Amino acid sequence: MKIRIQLLIILLGVSLIGNAQNSKDREAIKSMCGCFEVTFNFVETFEYSDDTLYKPSRTKHETALEWAGLITDSKNEVSIQHILQVGNPAEPYIVKHWRQDWMYQNKNFYMFSHDNKWDFETKSKGEVKGQWTQKVFQVDDSPRYEGSGSWVHVDGKSYWESTTDAPLPRREYTKRSDYNVTVRGNRQEITSNGWVHNQDNKKLIREETKEDIILAEEKGYNTYVKVADSRCKSASDWWESNKDKWKLIRTKWDEVYGRNTNLVLNAKFDNKPLYKHLFSDEYKKQENINNIIDSFIR
Amino acid sequence: MYKKTAIIVILLSLLVLSSFTYSPSYKNVKCLIQMRTYDGEGAYVIVSLINPENKYEKTLYVNGDDEEWYVDIYNWWSFYGKKRTNIDAITGATITGGKQSVCVLEIDENKINKGYKIIFETAVEDEKYYSKDIEFELTSENLKSKKVGSGYISFIRMMDSN
Fold it and tell me: For the whole prediction, is pTM greater than 0.80?
């Protein structure tokens, strides 16, 4: 009887510690919400090409104002939509940007392979114990990259790390075609005034049945400094007026991701990429949205 | 006798060396491009030299100077985007529907009548992409001829004055 009570106390203790960790993790994730002044900084560091005519990417520094809104907030899932606000503050231009979903102890993954292909993979319960998966989506809510890791709260710091394969970002795929996979070393750290997205990336050439070739490496250092929410009012208002449409789009994608099979997407349909279709006013009803997304799936 | 042998050896070496050193001889050929009438943005028209193995060898002219859209000219981008050679001197503006434009193509005379081809690729934002709007053999005959397009190009006229 005594042993039973002791066992119960231990189990209760473990569960309480687990809950406290989960709640600390969620708090860290949700602190990425709000209005932020953002700097995007990328520089190519090491080059491994034998080609004497090899050209590295230009160093990039850009700034923006970005609003990040909470769209799902439950014990095991947090979803954050990022919206860019650019141009004249009196009449800003709003661009729906990326979305990050965080899932606790998630076992199902769409891992980027190359050339618009994502492989469906599962991890065991043990592999993802205590971990959070970050799923990152494109502006049209199609997949980008996913990775799993533990949130670490130590020495007054809170950070999460993961390395995963990803498609090239726009800043690269419109500038060069000599590599086709970015291996992203992501580190997201919460700071006293916002958060930092630290990246150590590899630029990879991947071809079927051949060994990967590392062409170069890249450092990314993006800072998010929290500012008054009022500065992002245009972006948050835009999201308020458009969120219902994007909920329908997420519903369709959830059905696609729920198929649990490899995914290959076409770059264009009717000569346009998916975001151009979905950003237009033509797609407001679930049926139309379903049809256009289906037409991109091979 | 020794001197004579040495001269022969030097001459022979020079002959062998010269057979390995390729020296291009360029000539400029004017090309008039007449677009057909269509609705939409200006067209990107890329002119490329294709070698006898059917691979891109050189970019001859680029009508369209916004690099952001080069990725949409799929076949050429997979060649050009790898090295990104300097094309400033051979780049002009996009050509709108119904308009015409003249460009100058630098042609290596050693490659005429040797199995090379010239292709014209065209693309318009949110419209169809033509990987071979026009394609023809690089022959002396064709450098003085008119060719009809299958996409946004109505026709081109090559004007080799030699």
Answer: yes
